[in-house]
Amino acid sequence: METIAYASQQEIELYQTALLKKQLLYLAEHSPFYKRLFAKNRIDVLEIQSLQDLQRLPTTSKNDLQRYNDDFLCVQAQEVIDYCTTSGTLGAPVTFGLTEADLDRLAQNESCSFETVGVKKGDIVQLMTTMDRRFMAGLAYFLGLRKLGAGVVRVGSGIPQMQWDSIFKYKPKYLIAVPSFILKMIEFAEQHNMDYKNSSVEAVICIGEALRKPNMENTVLTDRILAKWDIKLHSTYASTEMGAAFTECQHFQGGHVQPDLIITEIVDSQDLAVPDGDCGELVITTLGVEGLPLLRFKTGDMVRKHSSPCACGRNTYRIGPVEGRLQHMVKYKGTTLYPPAMHDVLAGFPEVLLHQIIVSSNEIGTDEILIRLATEKRSDALMNAIKDHFRAKLRVAPRLEFCDFDVLQQSVFHPLSRKPITFVDNRQQ
């Protein structure tokens, strides 16, 4: 199905500008937070006449969302029919109230995302992420697949045996999963002599972890999976705040933007646009959201924009992999590091069963890194090999510490967390 993504770039920009003007008028009328922001900065939204004019407006952040959460809501409580939460920078979670129209929009978003991958009506998709705990992603995937007319096998996260039982029984063509868990499923299948290579699975829509490096080459994790299993791995990147997803097509050159749902900017530390292909912070403006729309919201995610033509025929730009979160940036021995780069180094060692990166401040206020490792066997040779690999790839080697698998597992897979905790930041903010 052809959408606005196949129109010319000029037509896309005009289309987005019209939607932006509509969203600004909506904010000026219904959002207590943005009403105050516009008044404080003497902003007349009618003067915003182009996408470029967005830079005349101030940015907002998750701190604003946490401090004034209720003031961002643009509808009465009785119009909210679903509540989702995301983690906050100041401790308590941030609540997003969704209206009926917002849920329809969420379904449309994921339906288009799945079509980008190649999912069609009648295909069976195994959902390997939670729908509970006020988690938006699982709900969005379910709504999108339902709208598309695909069959959904809602297994949830974890438990390799249950995942394989469902795959062999219901024969899904696609999985939605965290890529490192796919590797664990492969290992489980090999240990139990399962014929996984001849299963029905043709592709995995991967969430939560990067499949590509900044230059779009495969990460070590991706190569390890593909070396074992001849399937396609598509990246999809989204967040609760965005209410939109960036999903890879069959050419695997970054996630396509959905121009009817979101406007993005990639900015430097001064909130100025960076050149295409340079790394910067992703700033988003949601389109068509009723409950809790956001204007120039700083996500904290460091990404690159790719505007070169895509062979799939869409004229939308793509967003590359998340190279790190601004708040997770580590300055270690003069080198700037982000957790995804460290995770990828460790992915090159099959002996490492589980790991957790812990960052803290030392007595002089600089960053220290400790990586806890659970391995099949402990040896000085393995420890030295990992350190050498860190030096070769990232120029520095953090402190490493072996840990019992059961102990580390309890820390990484904490029962109160919806995601594995592989990065812990103990620095004083």
How does this structure look, described?
With 429 residues, the chain is α/β, with parallel strands linked by helices. The chain has twelve helices and 20 strands. Strands 3, 4, 5, 6, 7, 8, 9, 10, 11, 12, 13 and 14 form a twelve-stranded mixed β-sheet that branches. It has a four-stranded mixed β-sheet with strand order 19-18-17-20, sandwiched between helices. The N and C termini lie far apart (47 Å). The model has no long low-confidence stretch (mean pLDDT 93).
Name its key features:
23% strand; 4-stranded mixed beta sheet; 429 residues; 32% helix; globular; 12-stranded mixed beta sheet; alpha/beta
**N-to-C span:** 47 Å
Number of strands: 20
Supply the helix-strand structural class.
alpha/beta
Low-confidence stretches: none
What would you call the quaternary organization?
single chain
| C-alpha geometry | globular
Structural topology:
Layout: H1 9-30, H2 32-40, H3 62-67, H4 69-72, E1 82-86, E2 94-98, H5 100-117, E3 124-127, H6 136-148, E4 151-154, H7 160-170, E5 174-177, H8 179-191, E6 203-206, H9 220-228, E7 232-238, E8 245-248, E9 255-256, E10 262-267, E11 279-286, E12 297-306, E13 318-319, E14 324-325, E15 330-332, E16 335-337, H10 339-347, E17 352-361, E18 367-375, H11 380-394, E19 399-402, H12 405-412, E20 423-425
Parallel strand pairs: 3-4, 3-5, 5-6, 6-7, 17-20, 18-19
Antiparallel strand pairs: 1-2, 7-8, 8-9, 9-13, 10-11, 11-12, 12-13, 12-14, 15-16, 17-18
